[in-house]
Amino acid sequence: MELSNGVKKVVVFDYGFGNVRSAERALARAGADVEITRDFDRAMNADGLLVPGVGAFAACMQGLKEARGDWIVERRLAGGRPVMGICVGMQILFARGIEHGVETEGMGEWPGSVEPLQADIVPHMGWNTVDVAAGSELFAGLDADARFYFVHSYAVHDWTLETGNPLMTAPLVTWSTHGKPFVAAVENGALWATQFHPEKSGDAGAQLLTNWIGTL
């Protein structure tokens, strides 16, 4: 759905659990034509689909299913169409979330569990650096000491997905640390995601979104 002027169309999926307006503004500043919607066809046909998320894992997962967002994400990825998840929008891409001892099934795009942060101070709220994966496109052009804005009490502490096929590119995993190291971003083919909020991360976040849009 690239527009005639070369601008890429990005849909921010509105399922009731994300900072859709701040994401819309940040993507527009990064050069995209942005629409907030849960319309099935528009979400399927956009150049890029952004899935935000705030709040509890279980509630976000339920809201996504009620809006058929899980099906949209799966269908887009099956066709190699780019999807990006932010914060809990990243967490629900994993196999499961565990909150207050209750386990909720996630989308299962990646194995692993979203579990409580193992740190003295929770939630993790504020700016932090990341350990960028070698070869990252998402963080291209950013300094090693670039900081991003995090607000979360849960994270994935163990990454288990590898590829034994030499013809397949292994996912690129970027880490950060709050107490124990946790997954801060993943680049896996058409599916990218960040635990932090690029839309709230100033110039560094703007560069990151520009990088994503540039791959659409």
Automatic annotation (TrEMBL):
The keyword Hydrolase applies. Pathway: Amino-acid biosynthesis; L-histidine biosynthesis; L-histidine from 5-phospho-alpha-D-ribose 1-diphosphate: step 5/9. CDD domains: GATase1_IGP_Synthase (cd01748). Its EC number is 4.3.2.10, 3.5.1.2. SUPFAM superfamilies: Class I glutamine amidotransferase-like. It is found in: Cytoplasm. InterPro entries: Class_I_gatase-like, GATASE, Imidazole-glycPsynth_HisH. GO terms for biological process: L-histidine biosynthetic process. Keywords: Amino-acid biosynthesis, Cytoplasm, Glutamine amidotransferase, Histidine biosynthesis, Hydrolase, Lyase. The keyword Cell division does not apply. Residues 11-211 form the Glutamine amidotransferase domain. The active site is at C87, H197, E199. GO terms for molecular function: glutaminase activity; imidazoleglycerol-phosphate synthase activity; lyase activity. It catalyses: L-glutamine + H2O = L-glutamate + NH4(+); 5-[(5-phospho-1-deoxy-D-ribulos-1-ylimino)methylamino]-1-(5-phospho-beta-D-ribosyl)imidazole-4-carboxamide + L-glutamine = D-erythro-1-(imidazol-4-yl)glycerol 3-phosphate + 5-amino-1-(5-phospho-beta-D-ribosyl)imidazole-4-carboxamide + L-glutamate + H(+). IGPS catalyzes the conversion of PRFAR and glutamine to IGP, AICAR and glutamate. The HisH subunit catalyzes the hydrolysis of glutamine to glutamate and ammonia as part of the synthesis of IGP and AICAR. The resulting ammonia molecule is channeled to the active site of HisF. Heterodimer of HisH and HisF. HAMAP family: HisH (MF_00278). This is Imidazole glycerol phosphate synthase subunit HisH. It comes from Streptomyces caeruleatus. The lineage of its organism: Bacteria, Bacillati, Actinomycetota, Actinomycetes, Kitasatosporales.
